[in-house]
Design a protein that fits this description.
The structure holds two protein chains of two kinds.
Chain A lengths: L1 E5 L12 E3 L3 E5 H10 L1 H15 L3 H67 L4 H21 L6 H5 L3 H16 L1
Parallel strand pairs in A: 1-3
Antiparallel strand pairs in A: 2-3
Helix pairs in contact in A: 1-2, 2-3, 2-4, 3-6, 4-6
Chain B lengths: L2 H9 L2 E2 L3 H12 L10
The chains are: A mainly alpha, B mainly alpha.
Amino acid sequence: MKTYELSSGEKQSFDPFLFYRSEQTVFIEADFASFIFKKTKSGLAFVLAHEIAHSKDLTILRIILGCVYFFVTWFLTLWSLRSYGWFGWLVTFCALTFVLNLVSSKLARQTEFKADKLAIKLVYTAGFDTKEAILWMEIFFSLCEKLVAEEKKFTFKLTEDHPKGIDRIAMMRQTFIECNS
Amino acid sequence: MTEKQKIKLLKKYLVPTPPEIQEIFDQLLAQMPAGSKKFY
């Protein structure tokens, strides 16, 4: 796995605080990473650990779910097309897309919790100040929520498909207690 | 924008990671052997 840092240019095309990862690569946004690094190393360690944790998501489960969805979609759409024509197909397709969105958003939130939990364990075992990391994340979440509340038109990806900050902090604290016990 | 397009676009703006940040990353990775699911 490699890390790359993004240059500052054109970052407006993406989320303002961008930590993006694909299967093997973690991309970190240059200015933001440097900003956290100057404030708190443990805070940056947590953010990086969170992205590492995502790369360890249960890929096999996702593949199985993807296959199940694919076959169910094919079967139902073909059945509706033969039984009710194009209108039936359209209704079935929309209903399936709606269900998929519901399931995937629930899964996405669960994945975030899992990543937070693992990130705290990684930060703790790597010897960083876990308390400081949690405190920094608490400040970060409250800042994000404040920004979103002030600027209604603008929403961070963080607040769209991630669990609420307060719930994430509670989970982090719980994991920290487990690490210490 | 699809996942692939995003990554392609992102790669245009890559600069080398400062060693101090890479060091933190490596330190964290060292705690997690490849393929390990032990934390789950």
